[in-house]
């Protein structure tokens, strides 16, 4: 099913994190050339590239702060390095400034929207232009179950930004249909990553209790769905939101 991944050129943003690194290793395992984007995780990214190469794969790291205008340069940098771009995975994301709704400030709101919606759109726009002239491609956006709940009392801005990302998916998928550019969203639930491990034990237990399967997801659960969408198994899928959340 995943033989079509071999030799694909795949760029993953936020690839030094828990879900991102899992995706990078999985795509490399199936023979893809993988671009590891990072902001301040240089050492993790370097180790990840080394691991991919030790296993006979092809990988390279690309640094960019996605809250800055200059971040769009990673698309041409990736294309120059690998000779093309087949799959863009907009995985990078975070809630900047965990504050109560009544205390939420404009800077936290703006940075959260920039990272989770603005940057993914303009990266996708740049990738779209290349894919349009080169037979198509895949754009896969990573959203969050927070969209379903409107975020929490401290993450409304994060949920709103991810909701915007899902709308971007729908819009791009309609434009991409004529050019074989398939655009989908994977909405991740509560996944066992370093980001969620920062929560207190009681908060984690309370959150897990909300999940019908009564356990957190694993990074590979999300990575597997992304791999599916990037492969020939996803050839007839576009404009869809796939939830990986244990029934949540």
UniProtKB/TrEMBL annotation:
Q: Which InterPro entries match?
A: NAD(P)-bd_dom_sf, Sc_DH/Rdtase_CS, SDR_fam
Return any one Pfam family short name.
adh_short_C2
Which UniProt keyword terms apply here? Answer: Oxidoreductase
Q: List each coiled-coil range.
A: none
Q: Does the keyword Oxidoreductase apply?
A: yes
Q: Which GO terms describe its molecular function?
A: oxidoreductase activity
Q: Which family does it belong to?
A: Belongs to the short-chain dehydrogenases/reductases (SDR) family.
What is the protein name given in its UniProt record?
Answer: Uncharacterized protein
Q: What organism does the record attribute this protein to? A: marine metagenome
């Amino acid at each position: 099913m995943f033989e079509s991944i071999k030799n694909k050129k795949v760029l993953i943003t936020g690839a030094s994190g828990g879900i991102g690194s899992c995706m990078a290793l999985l795509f490399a395992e199936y023979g893809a050339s993988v671009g590891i984007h990072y902001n301040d995780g240089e050492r993790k990214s370097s180790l990840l590239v080394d691991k991919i190469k030790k296993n006979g794969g092809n990988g390279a790291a690309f640094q960019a702060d996605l809250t800055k205008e200059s971040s769009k340069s990673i698309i041409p940098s990736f294309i120059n390095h690998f000779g093309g771009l087949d799959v863009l995975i907009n995985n990078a994301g975070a809630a900047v400034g965990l504050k109560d709704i009544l205390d939420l400030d404009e800077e936290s709101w703006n940075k959260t929207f920039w990272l989770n919606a603005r940057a993914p759109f303009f990266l996708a726009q740049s990738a779209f232009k290349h894919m349009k002239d080169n037979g198509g491609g895949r754009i896969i956006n990573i959203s969050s179950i927070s969209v379903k709940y409107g975020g929490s009392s401290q993450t409304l801005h994060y949920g709103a930004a991810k909701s915007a990302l899902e709308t971007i998916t729908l819009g791009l998928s309609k434009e991409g249909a004529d050019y074989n550019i398939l655009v989908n969203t994977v909405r991740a639930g509560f996944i066992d990553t370093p980001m969620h491990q920062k929560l207190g034990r009681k908060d984690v237990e309370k959150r897990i209790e909300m999940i019908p399967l009564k356990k957190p997801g694993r990074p590979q659960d999300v990575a597997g769905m992304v791999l599916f969408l990037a492969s020939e198994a996803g050839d007839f899928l576009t404009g869809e939101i796939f939830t990986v959340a244990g029934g949540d």
